[in-house]
Design a protein that fits this description.
Strand order of the largest sheet: 2-1-3-10-4
Distance between the termini: 74 Å
Number of strands: 10
Strand content: 15-25%
Structural class: alpha/beta
Oligomer: single chain
Largest sheet: 5 strands, mixed
Length: about 250
Amino acid sequence: MRMWIKSSLVLAVLFLVLAGCGTQEPQTIHISVAASLKDVMDDVKPLYEKEHDNIKLEFDFAGSGQVRERVENGAPIDGVVLASAADADTLLKKKFISEKQEIASNTLVAVMPKKSVPTGDIKTELAKARVIAIGDPASVPAGKYAAEFLTKEQLMAGVKSRLVKASDVRQVLAYVESGNADIGFVYQTDAMISKKVQTAYKMSNSSHSPIGYYVATVKDSDVADEASKFMDYMEGAQAQKILKKYGFGVAN
């Protein structure tokens, strides 16, 4: 009788342990991502979580400069995806990350409302534009690349008073979509997702710094190993297929 009771107690404890294991909550990984990758991450999230049922991905989106500042200020971020080599290098230098991996590239374009009729070259277009939307070069890589283009082509002095600065490329896109800006500088991938704008001009890669996207794990993350696995995933075939779908190029 005592043996039966002891065996029953052992089985009951074992059942409780197994039941507890079966209801274990997934591990959350928080990734801060460049705004131009939102559509990519919306596709990546369910695929990754299906393959890794112990993981829950949580994203926030902003300009790469803002992402870098959040990491520097100690925000609870496990990994970053940046559209700027400079911001990634700053985090490396300050030892917030130990390495960066380039996963994709992009093209800088100028967009106009769908109903507009582009005339002449971009210099002519910019000369007559009332409002020109651009990401804030201090925190938005697309804005920095656009500023480099305008400076190299000796156009900055003529357009400076008509620039409206946005917090990220999606806000630039919104300005042009709404007609609040006559022309705006965004990535080719942003232009592709909007039915309200047209790609009027493409900037030569030689007119600005190379456009690359970089992933990195934050060193003091409590889930650094799992975050690193996700970063590796972004270099893999499935994620690269999604990046290509949205118009991103291969890494430089």
